[in-house]
Amino acid sequence: MARPIIIDTDPSPDDAVAFLMALGSPDELDLLAITTVGGNAPLVLTTKNALKALELTGRGDTPVYAGASGPLSRVLETAEYVHGENGFEGYDLPEPTLKAAAGFAPDAIVDLVMARPERTVTMCCLAPLTNLALALAREPRLARRLERIVLMGGAFSEGGNVSPCAEYNIYVDPEAARRVFACGAPIVMIPLDCTHQALTTKARLRRLCAVGKPHMEAFFHLLTANKRFDENKYGTDGGPLHDPTVVAYLLRPELFDGRDVAVEISCDEMTRGMTIVDWWSVTDRPANAKVLRSIDAEGYFDLAIERLARAARG
Predict the structure, then answer these.
(1) Using one digit for the tens of pLDDT, what is the confidence trace for 190-199?
(2) N- to C-terminal Cα distance for the chain?
């Protein structure tokens, strides 16, 4: 039976690959909804980008709910310097005719989870955690109703990508992240230590394009453009394909390795958004997350290309 999931996202091309992979895996995953948040770009653009990707693949049957436009208590810091002015630079997709569903994303999360049996719905978080934090505040029973939370975010020994010690998703809204990590639901955290091992090399992108479907050609161009920032920054062949690791973990957990540890979130200005990982259990804090530190990159890209290719209808 397909696992019901909700994907919370701020779509750049990485995010879109993730939710399209889920749509390309109907036997394993039942995507109940996509919820959007202000992050990589302002909310109006992240919502539009989700709709563009769905329209590109003929998947207008998937509801998209717009959520929080900014963090719980801070000013939103977007990342157009990475993803372009609209968050989806690299291929000129038309304006979508699809519209977002009526309702506020945190309310939709609560309603969708509480309407289903306990421990059946998985939250897949690819963005700042504001929507989920707001949902947890609205419905205190939500955490124990979730099957688990799988999120792309944080950093351990790799260092940060937006500050010396913080990864972007956690940095943008550390107060929301602190609330989520303290909520009591099972959490899987996929940090930069893991995603930086999975690079969109030229050879891998050529394989993606060689599938020959129109949406695969579009994502070849989107990912090629999107990863130029990382190539220039790190001097690598391609950049990390971060967000689809969340969906890949649900589909093929054996591609990953990690351990259960205690994680705390810093909200102090000097270390804002730092994920403090007690890898060696040097404190008496109980484990609250499984932190993944390694990935079979070849197996991951085999899976990503296969399931992205299956996403389009027609």
Answers:
(1) 999 999 999 9
(2) 25
Phi-psi region at 300: left, alpha or beta (left = phi > 0; alpha = psi -120 to 50): alpha
Work out the number of other CB atoms within 10 angstroms of the CB of residue 99.
10
Cα–Cα distance measured from residue 226 to residue 43, given in angstroms and rounded to the nearest whole number: 19
Overall pTM surpassing 0.85 (yes/no): yes
For residues 64 and 197, what is the distance between their CA atoms, to the nearest angstrom?
Answer: 31
Predicted pLDDT of residue 12: 97
Q: Average pLDDT in the 252-276 region?
A: 98
Q: Residue 229 corresponds to which tokens in the numbers above? A: 């920032």
Q: Tokens for 186?
A: 């099972």
**C-alpha gyration radius of the chain:** 18
- Residue 221 annotated among the catalytic residues of the structure: no
Q: How many helices (H) and strands (E) does the chain have?
A: 14, 9
Q: Of the residues 83, 196, 215, 242, which is catalytic? A: 242
Q: Are 47 and 77 in contact (CB under 8 A)?
A: no
